[in-house]
Structures are given as C-alpha cells and as structure tokens.
C-alpha cells in the first residue's frame, strides 16, 4: 500500500501535465501544476472541482446547441436592428456595433428606463408589477434567500399563480442553496415552476464546476417590463438614511429591449429544463415610444471570446473626458488595467468608487492590493462609507453601463452575467447623478498616504495579488 501511495505521488503530477496545460493560460497551468506537484491528492481533487476544462468543454458544447435551438425558435424580430441615428464617428455608435458583433444583440431604440437605488423601493415596485401580471412572471436570480424579502416575493408569485398566471423561477444552485428547504417546496406546492441552474450535486444531471455560477439578476413580467442590475432577492440593510447602509442599483425598463432580456431568461430556462418558452405573450409587440437606445449583453464562461472584458476595454479606450466606475470589488486583469492607465495618460479623468468595507473581506483585501498600480496609472479611488453594491460605468456623457457583473476576473471570465448598455446624454446624466451621490458619500484615497503604508502591509498586498487569478 505504501508503495502505491508513493508511486501515486509521482504519477499524478506527471499525468496531469498535459491535462492542466490544455486550455489554460501559461500562468494558470503553471499554478495548477505546482499545486498538484506539492499536494498531489488535494491538487487533483481541487483541479477537477475548479480547474478542469473537460466540464467546460462539455458545457460549452451543450450550451451552444441549446442556444441555437432557443434562438431559432424565438421570434427573430427581436434581432432586427433599429437605426441608431448617430454618425459612425461617435464613440457610442462604434461601441454599439462592436457589442452587436460580440453579443449578437443589436441596439434597440424606443425604450424607457427608471433607475432605482433603494432596495426597499425595488422590491415594492417589483411586487406591485407581479400583482398586475396577466400573462407570465419570470425571475432569474443568483441569490433568492429564504428570508423576509424572499418570502415577500414568493407570496407575490403565489398570488399571481393563484390567478392562473404562469410563474417561472430560475436560481443558481449554489447562490440560492437556502431555497432547497421549506421556501422552495412552498413555492412548488403553490404552482410556481421553480428550477435550479448550474448544479453542484454530483448526482444531478447538469453537474458543473463549483466556480462556474449564474450570477444574473433579472425579472421579466408579461414580456413588457424587466428589472436587472446588482440586487439579489435577499434581505439587506437598505436604510438610505444611514451612510453605512447597503446600496444596490436596479433599472426598470420598458420597450423593445425587454425582448432581448426575455431571450436571456429563455436561454437559461432551457438550460435548466430542456423546455422552450412558448406562447404569444412571451414576445409581445412592444411600444417603441421611449427615447433611450439600449442593448442587453449576456455573457458567460461558454462564450467563444471574453465578451464583457473586451467591451469594457473598448468603452474605456474610446473615452475622451471622464470615466466613472462603481463596483463592490475591483480586481482587473492586466489588459483592463492598462486600458485605464492609457485613458488617464490621454487626459481622461478616471474615477473608481468601491466600498470601504466589502461584504467579502478577503476579496476586498485583494482589491486593495491593486491600488498602488491603479494610483500610479492615474486612477482616482474613492472609499464609499457604506456597502456599495451598485455595478455601473459611465463614459463621457454618452455611454452608461448597468450590470450584474463585478469588475473582477470571476465575473469577466467564469460567471454568467447580464449587462445593459444605455446610450445618450440624458440617460447618462441620470446615471452620473447617482454616481456623483456615491462619490459625495465617499472618502478619496490619498495617493501619497497610500504609498507610505508599512512594509508589512506592502508585503501582504504583494502576497494577496497572487490570489487575483482566482477571485
């Protein structure tokens, strides 16, 4: 037995060389191989939980096949591009074209948007809209907790189901694991079609890697109203009278872009159930009387390219005057960091707002470890006094982004996310007002003071940077 274990200590690292090297960056492959060499058994288990591309390749093949089926079934009118009406020299037009090519979602005119930055107000509005639903209610959330807010939403869904309105709920299997108990069963018993996505149960059919999560937040009601943004279905301290409160941002949208958001739900619904959304009310004819051009951009680990990262770099590279980013975490990869640095060198004001106290302290500490290179690159960093969870970006006076994604490697490369690009001065001014409010409730990081931090803190930051590829 001892001879077998000794042999395995050498056989496992050697056998894993071609496996770990395939499909990983050189740095990623080397990190896995070093870990497996020093800890063969632990490394082997963790690799197949978090690092293997075998699961990724299987998921990608299945995802692409299902995506083709959903999009061929869905009303192709949602893919019909509408004239944007801007010269091809303008940044927002070029970005819209690139977004269409990468995400296969054309820009759509005629939308209206409402920014809601109070979590209590979001839940109240959503529940009111569910109460008026006549054709369907669709919810897709990373976290749907069995708590006060979760039960309020569940009761609203049960009320709609009792009126004969089909209610479909899809949640991430890991993020919403609290629903595996009483509340999930309660919803099913009341006629709500409740499904989990990205299973972590080895006995379930659609097993996936633990680090591949569906991080989207989306509600679609009657195919005419949609909500998306940073907020999950969970109870948080949303008391806006307190600076230390939790700050989320959701948008409530109407108009043609709702069809794109419905398509996103339909794709994840099919991944969870192998069922297509059918019925004339799924993609209704929508009013185009609004004034805001928009594009929905679903992204995920099965994409053939790094869509969201590439679009962020394109937006930053096109900036002429000012970029504001708000995010609970900011751990950029090298290419995005360089793009921000180059924007600053061009004279663009680059401002980053993150919470002083992140809800995940380790991730927050890793984000701070990158501050010095960001400061050296000309980025102005602000610590929000509350728990800022809003995930936004504005570029000049022309482009706005509201997203479910954090500005970190997990959201850019591993999570399924949903972003909404909004174009035009009026809508960008509205987002800028909210971002300015976040800055007003923040403290600016003093570059000189930050660089004077102790040797111990500097050493800690250098060590924490090593965690960046996995956070």
**Integer average pLDDT:** 82
CATH homologous superfamily label of the largest domain:
Endonuclease Chain A
- What is the architecture of the largest domain at the second tier of CATH? 2-Layer Sandwich
Structural class: alpha/beta
CATH class of the largest domain: Alpha Beta
CATH topology of the largest domain: Endonuclease, Chain A
What this model shows, in words?
With 471 residues, the chain is α/β, with parallel strands linked by helices. The protein folds into three domains: 2-51, no CATH class; 114-290, 2-Layer Sandwich (Endonuclease, Chain A), CATH 3.30.870.10; 307-470, 2-Layer Sandwich (Endonuclease, Chain A). It contains 17 helices and 19 strands. It has a 15-stranded mixed beta sheet, sandwiched between helices. Strands 7-14 form a two-stranded parallel ribbon. A two-stranded parallel ribbon has the order 11-17. It is globular, with a radius of gyration of 23 Å. The two termini are 38 Å apart. GO terms for molecular function: cardiolipin synthase activity. This is Cardiolipin synthase. It comes from Syntrophobacter fumaroxidans (strain DSM 10017 / MPOB). Keywords: Cell membrane, Membrane, Repeat, Transferase, Transmembrane, Transmembrane helix. It is found in: Cell membrane.
């Amino acid at each position: 037995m001892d001879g077998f274990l000794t042999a395995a200590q050498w056989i496992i690292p050697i056998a894993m060389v071609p496996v770990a090297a395939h499909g990983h960056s050189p740095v990623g492959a080397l990190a896995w191989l070093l870990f497996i060499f020093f800890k063969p058994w632990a490394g082997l288990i963790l690799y197949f939980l978090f690092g293997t591309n075998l699961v990724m390749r299987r998921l990608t093949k299945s995802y692409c096949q299902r995506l083709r089926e959903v999009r061929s079934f869905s009303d192709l009118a949602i893919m019909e591009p509408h004239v944007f009406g801007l010269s091809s020299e303008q940044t927002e037009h070029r970005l819209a074209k690139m977004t269409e090519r990468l995400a296969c979602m054309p820009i759509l005119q005629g939308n209206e948007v409402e920014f809601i930055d109070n979590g209590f107000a979001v839940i109240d509005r959503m529940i009111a809209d569910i109460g008026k639903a006549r054709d369907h209610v669709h919810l897709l959330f990373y976290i749907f907790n069995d708590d006060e807010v979760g039960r309020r939403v569940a009761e609203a869904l049960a009320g709609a189901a009792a009126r004969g309105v089909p209610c479909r709920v899809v949640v991430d299997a890991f993020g919403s694991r609290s629903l595996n108990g009483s509340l999930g069963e309660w919803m099913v018993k009341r006629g709500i079609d409740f499904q989990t996505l990205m299973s972590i149960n080895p006995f379930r059919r659609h097993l996936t890697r633990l680090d591949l999560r569906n991080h989207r937040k989306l509600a679609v009601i009657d195919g005419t109203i949609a909500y998306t943004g940073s907020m999950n279905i969970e109870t948080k301290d949303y008391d806006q009278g307190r600076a230390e409160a939790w700050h989320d941002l959701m948008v409530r949208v109407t108009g043609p872009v709702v069809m794109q958001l419905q398509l996103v739900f339909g794709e994840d619904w099919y991944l969870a159930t192998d069922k297509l959304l059918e019925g004339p009310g799924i993609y209704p004819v929508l009013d185009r009387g609004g004034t805001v051009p928009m594009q929905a951009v679903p992204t995920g680990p099965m994409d053939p390219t790094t869509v969201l990262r590439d679009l962020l770099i394109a937006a930053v590279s096109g900036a002429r005057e000012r970029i504001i980013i708000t995010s609970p975490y900011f751990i950029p990869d090298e290419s995005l960091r360089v793009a921000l640095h180059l924007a600053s060198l061009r004279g663009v004001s680059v401002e980053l707002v993150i919470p002083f106290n992140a809800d995940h302290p380790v991730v927050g500490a890793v984000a701070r470890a990158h501050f010095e290179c960001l400061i050296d690159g000309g980025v102005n960093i602000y610590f929000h006094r509350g728990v800022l969870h809003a995930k936004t970006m504005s570029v000049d006076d022309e482009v706005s982004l509201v997203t479910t994604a954090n500005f970190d490697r997990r959201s850019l490369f591993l999570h399924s996310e949903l972003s909404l690009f909004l174009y035009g001065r009026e809508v960008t001014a509205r987002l800028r007002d909210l971002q300015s409010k976040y800055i007003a409730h923040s403290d600016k990081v003093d570059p000189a003071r930050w660089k004077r931090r102790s040797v111990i803190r500097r050493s800690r930051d250098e060590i924490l940077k090593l965690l960046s590829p996995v956070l």
